[in-house]
Amino acid sequence: MGPRRFGGFEPSSGRFFGAGELRWALLALIAEQPGHGYELMSRLEKRCGGAYRPSAGAVYPTLQQLEDEGLTTLEIDSGRKVFHISATGRAEVDQHLGEIDRIWARADERGQWGLFRDPDAAEIIGPALRLFKTAVSAVVHSHGDPAVIDQVRGILADTTRELQQLKIDSKREHRRRRGRQTD
Predict the structure, then answer these.
(1) For the whole prediction, is pTM greater than 0.70?
(2) How far apart (Å, rounded) are the C-alpha atoms in residues 29 and 37?
(3) Per-residue pLDDT, 114
């Protein structure tokens, strides 16, 4: 039996990358633009929306592997090893675009959860978790009554729409204020 799905959310093993995926991600980043190890680590973290923080212990051996396999070439620039994509590496990226696209799509999705790390989020995490707990409790205590489930879904959908509209309105107001400041 595969992993259980909960309303579109699939629990993960806790690992951000599956076997071999860090290799593809780094190779794809190098194909986009050459870089040295620390720079590639920073670009990878940014590409993952802060949801993954690469460690030197994972990245540097993988970069060495890419070089050993002839997928990258190395150039020393100001004392730093800058990795460039080789023709063989470019062919590998082109051949595995589907897998690479799936890695970036998952990174984008998980990166959205990185918002929880923002200090401003701390103000509402407690109330949001209480809302979630209350919704789950209502369903559990109804013993899965379909009418209760539908009602809880409706309340959550309405609340989501209201919050999405608030986000749109606050972004618009922020842009309006910023526009006033530059005049």
Answers:
(1) no
(2) 11
(3) 67
Q: How far apart are CA 128 and CA 159, in angstroms?
A: 11
Residue 178 CB partners (closer than 8 Å, separation 6+)? none
Please give the pLDDT value at position 39: 94
Report d(CA 42, CA 50) in Å as an integer.
Answer: 10
Nearest 5°: phi and psi at 80? Answer: -110, 145
CA distances from 157 to 58, 114, 167 (A): 41, 22, 15
**Dihedral sign from CA coordinates of 23, 28, 29, 35:** positive
Closest to 21 in 3D by CA, of 84, 101, 80, 134: 101
What are the structure tokens assigned to 13, written together?
Answer: 């093993």
Q: Cα-Cα-Cα-Cα dihedral of 52, 57, 58, 59, to 10°?
A: 90
- Whether the predicted pLDDT of 25 surpasses 60: yes
The sheet with strand 72-77 has its strands ordered as: 35-36, 80-85, 72-77
Res. 6: pLDDT tops 80: no
Q: Cβ(114)–Cβ(50) under 8 Å?
A: yes
